[in-house]
Every structure is written in C-alpha cells, then in structure tokens.
Design a protein that fits this description.
Number of helices: 12
Strand content: 25-35%
Radius of gyration: 20 Å
Largest sheet: 7 strands, mixed
Bound molecules: zinc ion
Order of helices and strands: EEEHEEEHEHEHHEHEHEHEHEHEHEHE
CATH topology of the largest domain: Quinone Oxidoreductase, Chain A, domain 1
C-alpha cells in the first residue's frame, strides 16, 4: 500500500509498505478521507515535538473496516467508521482523576499514519474512540471528528448561561470551528484576523462581526456597549495575542488559551486585571472520550455544518500540493483521498 512518510520538515516521501495486520482487538481501516490539520502543517514547516520524524503522518480520518482482529465485537469488515487517533489508558494518576485528556500515555501508542491507504488502530482506540459513520454523513465531514473533539473540550467546563458574547482571536481552521460551535450555542461571536479571506470564511460560518485586529476594541465596544466580551478564545498561538487576550474580556470573564505557542514562550499579564477583575485563564489540550462523543453527536445529528472548512481534495500522491497551498495561506483544510 501507499503510505506517506514525513522524513524531515519540508520533506515528504510516498512509500510502498505492506498492509498492516490487526492483532487482537485492533482493526485496520481502509482510509477514505484524511484531512490536513494545523498540527500537520506546523510539523511539515518547522517540526513538531508530538510528531516524530521520520515517521508516518496524518491523524484525521474516516473510512471502512478492512480487517478486524480477534476479539473485536462492535466492528466488522465493511463497516463505515469515523474516529480519533488516541485514547486514554484509564489507569494512570490523571485518568483516575477523570482528567483523561492529560493522561500520561495519551500521546503514546497514538495512531499516526492516516495519510495512507490503510491505517492500523490500536485496541484502546477501537474500544473507546472509534464509531460507526451513518450514511447520512459524508466521509469528508466525518473526518472532522478529531479536530471537533479538541474544540468541544474547553466548553465542558464553561457555563453557557453566563455567556452571550465571545471573541475568537484567529480565524484559521481551529478558530472557524470555535465560531461554528459558539454560534450553535446561540452566542454572538466577534472574530479578529489579519486576512480578508479568513474573515470572509468566519462570516460564512457564523461570526456576528469579523474584523482586523486593530479594530477589535472598537467592535467589542459597539457589540457589548463598553462591557467587554464574556469569553475570549485565543487560537493563534502567538505570544502577543495571548497577552492581549485579557484586554477584551469583561470582569469575571474567561480566556481560553487554545493556540499552543512555540516551546519556551513566556507571557506577561497585569496582575490587577487578573486579581481584581477575577479573570479565569485556562489552557486547553486534546480531549476526553466524552468530548469525542459530544463531537460525534453534533456531527451525526447535523447540529453543526462544517463542510465549508474543506477547501478541496487531492489524491494522496499529490499531498505536497495540498501542503504547498496551506503554506501560502491558501485554503482551510484539504481532503486527501488514497
Ligand atoms: Zn488535527
Ligand atoms: Zn491515563
């Protein structure tokens, strides 16, 4: 089978390798669609500590069960499936506290390699985080389960009855999914980004106001009557944006720091703002099995329409064309078809 290998930043090779065989409780998925993601782009451009090189590549997928190992009872050959590439161990100190997203082993044994004809899924992923795909949902949107699970994660801790307005900083694929999710929850979303085409995508997916960063304070003033937004979602992973994020929220508001910055980045905050205005700053990493189920439900019940995120499709062999476009800032996500 054909399998993409990321040899080093900027260097992709298409290899011919044997089709994997599932061991007990594992399955092999014949990939129908694998989507590009911001993490993949980061790895391709500058390397990524969670994506070892040289190595297999791609983690957003949907497809059909090609072969199920012994002891797999809920899936059989020919079943159409959608899933994520990781699952918690359920045994470590974090899992015992219910903090499944930061499981000590969540990034071990994850199933990278969706950019290939076939993908082997380990037993714990099959057991917890693989689902049947209904025929009513296309393979392309079904492959959005993984990024949507990440999006859903911070909201499980928030009280939506306290949130009427939100600011999303950055309208890349992740920012756009946050906008769609917040809009679905009935929240007025302001979005800021430097690029016109991204602002246009943001308006299409449901942003109430889309603005360039230097006008954002004005737009917040107009929208909230000088109050400040209830919630800020930082999606750029830029130090400056992390620091500015606290300026836009009302007293008692929440800032979700969703975009990860490069390792070693430090930020500075005004202690008075944090203390006397009682702000909540929270990181967000990965997702729990419950988040995956929430995302699955939203996709399969069509509560949310994310089809506009997929800018086009390429055969797997043309994967470099997709990354070349993303590198130039063209398109949101691309579907790769083996
Ligand atoms: Zn992803
Ligand atoms: Zn664990």
């Amino acid at each position: 089978m054909q399998q993409v290998s990321l040899v080093e930043p900027g260097k992709i090779e298409l290899k011919d390798v044997p089709i994997p065989e599932p061991s007990e409780k594992e399955v092999v998925v014949k990939v129908n669609t694998a989507l590009t993601c911001g993490t993949d782009l980061k790895a391709y451009v500058r390397g990524h500590k969670l994506i070892p090189m040289p190595g297999t590549f791609g983690h957003e997928y949907s497809g059909t069960i090609a072969k199920a190992g012994k002891g797999v009872s809920n899936f059989k050959e020919g079943d159409r499936v959608m899933g994520v590439h990781s699952a918690p161990c359920m045994e470590c100190r974090y899992c015992k506290k219910g903090l499944y997203n930061i499981c000590e082993k969540i990034m071990e044994k994850k199933a990278l390699g969706a950019f290939a004809e076939y993908l082997l899924l380990p037993a714990h992923v099959v057991q917890l985080n693989l689902f049947h795909k209904p025929d009513s949902l296309g393979f392309e949107e079904a492959a959005l389960l993984e990024p949507l699970s990440c999006i859903v994660h911070p909201y499980s801790k928030l009280r939506f009855d306290e949130i009427e307005t939100a600011l999303v900083i950055g309208a890349g694929p992740i920012g756009l999914m946050h906008i769609a999710w917040l809009k679905m929850k009935g929240i007025k979303v302001i979005v800021s980004d430097f690029f016109d085409d991204r602002l246009l995508s943001a308006s299409k997916i449901g942003a109430y106001r889309a603005t360039v960063p230097h006008n954002v304070e004005e737009v917040i003033k107009e929208t909230t009557g000088n109050f400040g937004v209830d919630l800020v979602i930082e999606c750029t992973g830029q130090q400056g944006a992390w620091e500015k994020a606290v300026n836009y929220v009302r007293r008692g508001g929440t800032i979700v720091l969703f975009g990860g910055c490069p390792e070693g980045t430090n930020v500075t905050y005004d202690t008075h703002r944090l203390h006397y205005d009682e702000l909540t700053l929270t990181g967000s990493f990965h997702f729990t099995p419950e988040d995956v189920r929430t995302a699955y439900q939203a996709l399969t019940e069509k509560a949310i329409d994310l089809s506009s995120l997929i800018s086009g499709e390429f055969p797997l062999k043309d994967i470099e064309k997709a990354f070349a476009l993303l590198r130039e800032g063209k398109g949101i996500k691309y579907a790769l078809k083996p």
